[in-house]
Specification:
Blueprint lengths: L9 H4 L14 H27 L3 H12 L3 H10 L3 H28 L18 H18 L3 H6 L10 H34 L3 H11 L6 H21 L3 H21 L10
Helix pairs in contact: 2-5, 2-8, 3-4, 5-8, 6-11, 8-9, 8-10, 8-11, 9-10
Amino acid sequence: MARSRHGFLSPLTALLREPAITADSLRGLAAHRRLLLFAVITGAALLINQYLAINGSLRHLVEVLAGFTGEARGQLWRDVQRTGFARLMEQARWAGWLLLGYVILPMLVIRFVLREPLKEYGLAWGDTGTHFRYYLLFGGVMAGMALLASFSDTFLDTYPFYPLAGRSWLDLLLWEMLYVLQFFCIEFFYRGVLLRGLKPVMGIYAIYVSSLVYLTIHLPKPFMECFGSLLFGLILCLLAWRCRSIWGGVLVHVCLAVSMDVLSLLQRGALPTTLLP
């Protein structure tokens, strides 16, 4: 009996049979210029992520601001600490740099240099609803792995990244909002900007470029996490390509991340008990 061409995985396996370069792909100088432009965008995003978002610090930022305002550096930093939200501001600083490097700068280039509509870079809903079962399956597998991992000490010591998330519901809500923002930034850049930006030149090969660049931001982490990020990124790229949208990946990422935080707090009996700190 012949195998059905309408099986569960057929929409994804069909992607692998797509031609790498389509008839309307860019050629010659236009292709070179586009590749150069997205190489610059990617380089800027990676540098901002590594040296400003990850290696930067709130204290250094406060000291720089103090230099502009004329206030004493030490005094301004003590004022920030007295708010009780210095650690949350640290997370906001991190998310803010990601927003700049992964979203704002690419959007400016797409809109004013390439003069292309932003919705073509994954911001439309596309066919996400049609293929949502794949996101549910993928998200379910990842959620099951997170549940098993939540019984380990390493997991409990790692999540949430904001150590005061259990201090109050306000802390937890504000932190999760920042956490969700950074996942939108990542999905927009890796499953939107790179994938759609390189498509006219590279065709479906853009999936592999995006997945490999996504791997690089995980390289300092343990081997299994790096390997998982490569697989995770490849699957999300395939789905984003098929759906022409980043929103399914955003939902999977957000649900997984928030559930990991809640699981960690539950396991430690550290869920907030008050609304305010």
